[in-house]
From TrEMBL:
Name of the protein this chain belongs to: ADP-ribosyl cyclase isoform 2
Family annotation (Pfam families): Rib_hydrolayse
Keywords carried by this UniProt record: Disulfide bond, Hydrolase, NAD, Signal, Transferase
Organism this protein belongs to: Strongylocentrotus purpuratus
Lineage of producing organism: Eukaryota, Metazoa, Echinodermata, Eleutherozoa, Echinozoa
CDD domains documented for this protein: Rib_hydrolase
Amino acid sequence: MNLLRTSLFLSSILAATVAYTLPGPGTTWNMTDVLLGRCVEYRQCLHGGLCFPYYGDVNCDAAVDSFLGAIRGMDPCTASYYAYDDFFNMVPPNTKPGTTIFWTGVSGAYIPHDVAEVSQEYIVLGETFPGYMALNLSFCGSTDPNEPSGFNYTVCPTEDTDRAGCSNNTFATFWDRVSELFTRQATGEVYLVLNAQRDRGAYHLESTFARVEVPALDPTKVTNVAIYLIPDFTLPTPNDKVRETCSNGTVASLRGVLTDLGLSNTCEEDPDDIMWLQCARYPDSPYCIPYSRQEPNTGGGTGGSSAIAAASMTVLFLQVVSTLLLNGCKID
């Protein structure tokens, strides 16, 4: 009997693996509890970010049931694009006017998330209600009759899974649809952080931003797309040979696309406030040498810039304190 169970288990892994390329981990084991906990936390405005009045009316049990119901017992590769719409109606990805920030190609450097964490003037998708609930979770359904839960806890497709072999996978569909809704509700000036040294170009046509978010930008509601073009802080040394500017490469193509859509746009290379914040995270980066010789401008900025600059100094201070504590120093 144990041998049979092992054989069935290995067979299910093999079947799931060959069904799609670049698989990820299986469904998060305690996902129901995580979702409920995050929902309650967000509803009570304990997360420190957005706080809309309607949050208090959210029924977390119903929201979680709706989310899981879109996954349970479903083929991981045949999810409807609108499968999660009931969930999104309960917890829409709303932001305040002039605070929506997009990003592409900079996930490894945590740039937009750092910006959003230190200033409520900028909100990324992961800080909205549905984004916060699902962030860093893995999920997909199972049609295996031997899995009564209806979830695959072994392996799931991811956003990187080949769409030709798994065209509507449960995970990618969630993030594509919520990204579209996040974009459609954006009003006022919106912000975009791009990696000037991305191998496939700062504006990569297969990215979620290019495929989903750009077409969803509403020129009747969005007054300007402010592009922030920054270097790749994860590179060990600067490499200006592969670095795009606001006027060449894929960035120029993007600006042309935005203009054709009737969207005003501006572009800034190495904005001081974001550079300061990233140098707090990557103090040894070659890009941070100029910033080690000057103080950040913590006043007179526009929008959330002064908050970002001030917060970068806070991050630096906390890093110093953490280092001292790890080395056994007493902090009086």
